[in-house]
Amino acid sequence: MIGGTRQPRHGEGVTDILERVEPDETTAGGGEIARSYLHEEVYRQIVRLIERGEFPGGTRLPTEFELAGRFGVSRPIVRRALEQLRERGYVTTRKGSGTIVSTDVAGPRLAFPVLSSVADLQQFYEFRIALEGQIAAQAAERRTERDLAAMTEATDRADAALAQGNYQLCTDLNFAFHRAVAAASGNRFFLATLEALPNLVGETALRRRFGPLAQEDSRQRRLLEEHRRILRAIEAREPQRARDLMTDHIAAAMKFVFEHTPLA
Length: 264
Prior knowledge:
By secondary structure, the chain is mostly helical.
């Protein structure tokens, strides 16, 4: 219990983000409708970032403007997500200080190196290839029907964000699939390590340079299809195939990042 309210469990409150419509006040011309219940999605993402320690307890969250840019949504949507965070005790608002993360909700974080050079990126992806290849293989051996449902849900949520054209949020949602695979491995040390990995989404010393929207749409669709192939291998209980697909997936991501992420 935090601040008299019950903390949500992982995976709780998942909604179909295409089931409702609401106006996006920042859409060009003011006349288009955002076909999603995006504040729920943004709320979940911020909760994850708090719980993994990216936003430590006692620190100030980024501004509404910065969060809107990170998740590719309007400020009113961010404002509604922040209201949920306050209601559930994750944050408080202090006059003159902004939105502060509650000190009793943020989890501990392993001290991984800060990514600030090409060498750091190389080592980061080498580690991920070795780690997540083993995670995927073990998930194929140990997964349950509940695990398969969680992985399927993760791909469906990313698919919905992609249909919306929200590439920033889709990028964050892709992590949910990797997290679900780690949970399916049945090894909580794998999951804890994955949660603590340096984050390449949003604020980082390395700035990603995306191409045209059509190119980004194609890339995100390719990532989603790769996730679905990994899911099918895990569902079929094919450990070596799951390992190979996951290592190929991360190697392809490394290639893309090296080509599109100049040092700040």
